Amino acid sequence: MKLFYRISYSIDLLLCAVLILSCGPREEASEKISAVEVDPPVVNIMEGGRLSLKVNVQPEGASWLYAEWSSSDEAVAQVNKAGTLKAIAPGTVTVTATVNGVSGSCSVTVTENVTPVSGIILSATSLNMGKGTTETLTATIEPADAADKQLTWTSSDNSVATVEEGRVTALSGGECDITATSSSGISAVCHVKVSAIPVEALAFSNGSPFTVLTDAGETYTLIVTYTPANTSERELVWTSSDESLASIAPTAEGQAIVTFAGSGTGPVTVTAKAGNPERTATQQFFVQGAGPLVNVPQEKFFAGKKARWSINTAAYPSVSNVRWESGGKTTEGPEASFAPAEGGENTAVVSADFAGLPIRFALNYTASEWFINQALDGANPRNTYPVFNKAATRAYFVTRGARRLYEINLEEGSVAMLYNLNDGKNDNGGDICVNPVSGDIYCSNQQHIYCISPEGQMRWEIPVPTCTSASSIAGGGPALSNDCSVVFIPAADKRVMAVDAASGTILDSFSFETTHIQLAVYGNDQLVMHSTVKDGIGAIRFTSFSGGKFSEVIAIDSPANDPTDITSPAISRDQKTAWFPCNGGKMVVVDLPSRSVRSCPVLARGYLQGISLVQDGAWMFFASQNQSQVNRADPASFGGTPTVLTPYTSGNDSHINFTTVASDAQGNIYFFIKEDGAGNSVFYRLAAARNWQPEVISSIEKQNNDPQGFFNFGGGYLIGGGGQNVNNRLLVRCIDAERSGWSGPGGDICATKNANLVYGN
Prior knowledge:
With 761 residues, the chain is mostly beta strands. The protein is 3% helix and 47% strand. Strand 43 (479-480) and strand 44 (486-491) form a beta hairpin.
């Protein structure tokens, strides 16, 4: 029992000791806390950030159990029981820790949260540069929304290359690193190797392959381009082949100002040299003195209309061996004439020698499309066609309504009334004829037939008192004898007259039954006519004129009964075939040697207007007014339906003029239409080389509100226009005004009016 008691007593003492130790120091037994410090005492933190704060007490051995934490503004920063600080919004607060009644604090500043730079990417990580060249590095900062994107650029060896804001300048051979560093210490490096890069070629960026014409006292800045662009051989040596004509003053790198002196005239060459081996760039100038080297045409340039150029030999007698090139044509000598292309920019290149030195310069010029584009107020040219004088320098037409004779000056590009026929009838304009020898114009109103001189003076008149036709000169109009001394006139008072072309004296006449007749001259002053006799029966008549008299008139029946309207027949080149277009869309083909009708096909609805012969012997005609199309047939085998080349049948099919088609010596066919009721005016060309597909030469929108018009071609000019009583307009387009020679309706090789003149002399 004693042993158990002792053991139990020992256990009780041990438990008491444990209990006493677990209770910790007693207050009265520990040292008192004199101060509390918060670590760190000053805090700078971005919003959203967290930081654990610590507490230090004084004295260091003082005992304590826990600290009480608080924030002076929890909207700025908060602190939990464990001392963890949380930044809420930008601002400044005081965070306090209290231990055993003693407090300490820290100052907390919360700043706005910004994105730091995480990386830098340079546009190149290595560069091979030539001495004296520059390259620009660009830096991309990541992320794109980094707050501070400022960079510091440095070179590891400024003797090799320097850098300023990314622009690297190579100074000498060697290697170095170019570094871009952010304010936060992030960096990127480009390795640069500098070496000598030889120049391969020089050129003047503002130079010309031609000689540049300049005047004394002027200046010209030459700018050199290097190949390759990063060559290190950039030092230039400038020279002038004649210091008395041109002096050179280098300015910026690769540039120099050339000043032309007034001490002389002629060519001078400026040269820039660089590199080893030496490379050169040259530019030749021609210093003009008292006057221009080239006499440039003063008039406006027009497509197709020739303009005359010439060397000013009076001021520059040393110029020789002149050669002109433009539009595929070449002319040698001090003068040349060129017709600009069909519109746009043109260049004439001139090669020559000046006192033994070669020069070659270019003359650039712009050609306008329309030679004449003019309104004709109160003058309606509808239902007639213009005719040309022999030289194709003038064209004439008669207007409808207030009957007037107009002249187109094809040299000056002007239009004027030549003679007032004083009619006032709102009927079709009459046919006219120009005498290629005298230049006189034969035309009419509804009471008289006139001969008007080229100067606008009336030479003679013939009254036609019983006129019932829309035109006193009906049907095909006048035609001339072989020697142009007699004009044959089918008049609306049912007569065919032979009139002395100079005096107006009626030499002979014969009558026919109706007011409508078509007439043509062929062979040795032989006449063929188509008319209507009574009861709608057509007739073809043959006669000859000799010794001032008509011979017997021979008539045969015609399968067509109406030759009305104002177009003329055509005679073949061999003088053996005549074609008469007639109302009802019929074409009467007459064999002249046998005086018989070969055929009479129906080709179109309504009127057939205008015939033109082409070089290959085929002929073409316009089917107009009631059916708009161009047909083609071979006269040697004509008898069936010809080929329809260009139909125009959209909506209203009365799109085309009431006159003619025309041809040129190259076999091209021309016609003029008003495309639609809005009045778009279009010149077309057809050519065998293009499979007769219509080619638009010129188009002008909505000039006439009526589809009727007039048209002809001669001497390289297309003349068209028309209208009603308003919106009358004349359009003239040059296509090859270098041509010369008399042109009747249909061009130089069309047999209308007088075949002997066209095919003879």
